[in-house]
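Good morning,

Attaching, inline, the backbone tokens for the sequence recovery test we're adding to the shared suite. The designed sequence is right after.
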């Protein structure tokens, strides 16, 4: 039986090289498919993240109110402007008739008592008033000052005759705590600075009275 003719070595090398080229093409195609799929998934995830972030925003609106232990609310209160002193039912007052001029409340830290009637006007604008009596320690006052300074629609002052050590007051809303380290202080500020209780949202906290 005659032996099969031998293929020239150059032909074998050519076939091997062709197979290798084809294998490389397959590998490149496989990698392109993998990376394309990964890119599509990443884009989808990124798109979902953007959507989640955009839906979480609500044009600056606050999240829904949550219950804070100890907070008292007082219902509908008068908003009449008056030029005379007002006798309030709460100490410090939480709302009612008040002076036509508001108290400046852009992170103002007052070291002396402020007029009730002007402070109440600031509450109407959405400010939170932090007040304290002589039971508050210097550390408490420093901690509260740090929270107030640089803020907006928030102010603080001493209030020697108030019954609680530290009182946080928003319009028709009030909380008393014993220490500035109480976590409800931050919770109250987060919820009630320009919160849903504000009768006049968007009203100014500058251009008013600085005692």
């Amino acid at each position: 039986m005659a032996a099969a003719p031998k293929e020239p070595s150059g032909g074998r090398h050519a076939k091997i090289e062709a197979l290798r080229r084809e294998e490389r093409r397959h590998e490149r195609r496989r990698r392109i498919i993998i990376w394309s799929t990964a890119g599509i998934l990443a884009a989808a995830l990124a798109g979902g993240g953007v959507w989640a972030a955009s839906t979480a925003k609500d044009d600056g609106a606050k999240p829904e109110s949550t219950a804070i232990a100890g907070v008292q609310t007082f219902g509908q209160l008068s908003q009449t402007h008056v030029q005379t002193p007002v006798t309030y039912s709460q100490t410090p007052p939480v709302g009612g008739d008040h002076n036509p001029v508001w108290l400046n409340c852009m992170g103002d830290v007052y070291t002396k008592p402020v007029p009730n009637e002007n402070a109440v006007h600031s509450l109407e604008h959405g400010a939170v008033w932090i007040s304290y009596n002589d039971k508050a320690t210097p550390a408490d006052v420093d901690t509260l000052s740090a929270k107030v300074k640089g803020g907006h629609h928030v102010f603080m002052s001493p209030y020697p005759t108030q019954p609680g050590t530290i009182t946080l007051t928003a319009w028709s809303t009030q909380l008393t705590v014993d220490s500035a380290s109480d976590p409800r202080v931050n919770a109250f500020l987060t919820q009630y600075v320009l919160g849903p209780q504000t009768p006049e949202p968007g009203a100014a906290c500058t251009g008013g009275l600085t005692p």
